[in-house]
Amino acid sequence: GHAPHYFKLVSVQVMIRHGDRYPLYAIPKTKRPDIDCMLLPSRKPSHPQLEAFIKQMSKGSAAQMEGSLGSLPRYPSHSLCEMGELTQTGVVQHLRNGQLLREIYINKHKLLLSDWSAKQLYLETTGKSRTLQSALALLYAFLPGFDWKKIVMRHQWSTIFCSGSCDCPMRNHYLEEEQRRQYSLRVKNNDLEKAYVDMAKIVGIPTRQLRASNPIDSLLCYFCHNVSFPCTKTGCIGMEHFKVIKGHQLEDERERQEKKIYFLYALLATHPLLNQTVNRLQRIAEGKEEEVFVLYSAHDVTLSPVLSALGITEARFPRFAARLVFELWQDGKRPKEHFIRILYNGADVTFQTSFCKDYYKRSSKPMCPLEKFVNFVKRDMFLVFNSTNYYDACRRRPL
Predict the structure, then answer these.
(1) Top-level CATH class of 7-167+262-384?
(2) Catalytic option among 5, 18, 109, 392
(3) Is 18 a catalytic residue?
(4) How do residues 163-216 score in pLDDT, each as one tens digit?
(5) Domain locations in the chain?
(6) 276: Cα within 13 Å, side-chain hemisphere
(7) Alpha-carbon dihedral of residues 154, 158, 159, 163, nearest 10 degrees?
(8) CB count, 10 Å around CB of 20?
(9) Which one is catalytic: 36, 217, 252, 300?
(10) Could you confirm whether 20 is annotated as catalytic?
């Protein structure tokens, strides 16, 4: 919360990746990692508000949940986690996120007063239980004991949050190009191939089938939960396999930034979401909008392209419970002037963005003028496609 003392915080928009989850894929012919998704306040990692959170969630039938969200559980509750289910660690991560945001934005900056109204919140999540539950955990620690009648949870069917603007042929073209790049990098990596062949032998399946089961997803879960890697009669998948795959992922991240195909995909993929964000910030700056706290609960495939499109190249891949925050500030001496600040996992990344890098060199203010962000989203995002708007950029073949 660093700002000149005469600045006023007027709105906060938060994008999160869901918290720690059980794997989405199983390694064939191995026992699934034995992880309990029941919430037990006595078990580590815990949180002082965990027990109160569980109580609050059981009363949630008064909330308005759009679409299929109403049929999802509001917190995890299986003694053996289901595939992709949020774990207790994941719930605790977002209780901590909510608590941090509360300390700064509610206690210090009085962003929402105790009599806040439903209009002041905008909440949106994809249709997965892990994103809904992450949103509710963060919201609970941010506004403990909130009134369920004021909660309207919107359902977003697209993981890139493109709402009504998802038709974009060139976005799909760049995504396919990016997948080709990933494939050719993988094929070149002999150590990676050896590791897959070796692991496939251990579990007794074809290498192709093992690769398709995306073993890194499971292995990360074993690793993060301190559960020993799976074994069969033939041997054990071990740390050396894990290191090779993880090393390849890091190399892939580096090449992805150099080759810029992903960046082109990211610009087209995130424009609808960034455009919605900018329109909202402009309306708030003009005093027309009341949405002071916005929460998008999403996935790594949502956050990653947003970071790329903004030009924040130093940001690491979004880990579980990553948070990206857009703050809107008003200059108290010149009330018409508004500034934004962007934080990623608590670090100020405003001046790493492509649209505010240069401004920083010339200004003493610790933030970026809102119009810089507006011009970027409304105009400059399309320059690289030799276009002036989203519709055209989505349809213009590269030369």
Answers:
(1) alpha beta
(2) 18
(3) yes
(4) 999 999 999 999 999 999 999 999 999 999 999 999 999 999 999 999 999 999
(5) 7-167+262-384
(6) 19
(7) -70
(8) 24
(9) 300
(10) no
